[in-house]
Amino acid sequence: MEVTTKHAKEQKQGVLKRIAGPVVTAVNLDAHMYDVVKVGKEELMGEVIKIQGDSVIIQVYEDTSGIRPGEPVSNTGLSLAVELGPGLLTSIYDGIQRPLEVLVDKMGNFIQRGVTAPGLSHEKKWTFKPLVKTGDKVEPGAILGEVQETNIVHKVMLPPNVKAGAVKTIKSGDYTIDEIICVLEDGREYPMIQRWPVRVPRPVKEKMNPTIPLITGQRILDGLFPIAKGGTAAIPGPFGSGKTVTQQQLAKWSDAEIVVYIGCGERGNEMTEVLTEFPHLEDPKSGKPLMERTVLIANTSNMPVAAREASVYTGITIAEYFRDMGYDVSLMADSTSRWAEAMREISSRLEEMPGEEGYPAYLAARLSEFYERAGLVKTLNGARGSVSVIGAVSPPGGDFSEPVTQNTLRIVKVFWALDAKLSQRRHFPAINWLNSYSLYLEALHDYYDKEVSPEWNTIRSWAMEILQKEAELQEIVQLVGSDALPESEQVTIEVARMIREIFLQQNAYDAVDTFCDMKKQYAMMKAIKTYAELSYSAQLVGVSPAQINAVKAKNELAQIKFIKDYVPELAKIMKQMDDEFNTLRSAA
Amino acid sequence: MKEYRTISKIAGPLVFVEKTEPIAYGELVNIILADGTTKRGQVLDTSDELVVVQIFETTAGIGRDSGVRFTGETIKMPVGRDMLGRILSGGGKPIDGGPEIVPEKRLDINGAAINPYARGMPADFIQTGISTIDGTNTLVRGQKLPIFSGAGLPHNKLALQIARQAKVPGSTENFAVVFAAMGITKEEANYFMQDFERTGALERAVVFLNLADDPAVERIITPRLALTTAEYLAFELGMHVLVILTDMTNYCEALRQIGAAREEVPGRRGYPGYMYTDLANLYERAGMIKGQKGSVTQIPILTMPGDDITHPIADLTGYITEGQIVVNRDLHRKGIYPPINVLPSLSRLMNLGIGKGKTREDHKKVSDQMYAGYAEGNDLRGLVAIVGKDALSERDRLLLEFADLFENKFVRQGYDEDRTIDDTLNLAWELLSTLPVEQLTRIDRELIHKYHPKFRTGAKKE
Question: Are residues B268 and A344, on separate chains, in Cβ contact within 8 Å?
Answer without folding.
Answer: no
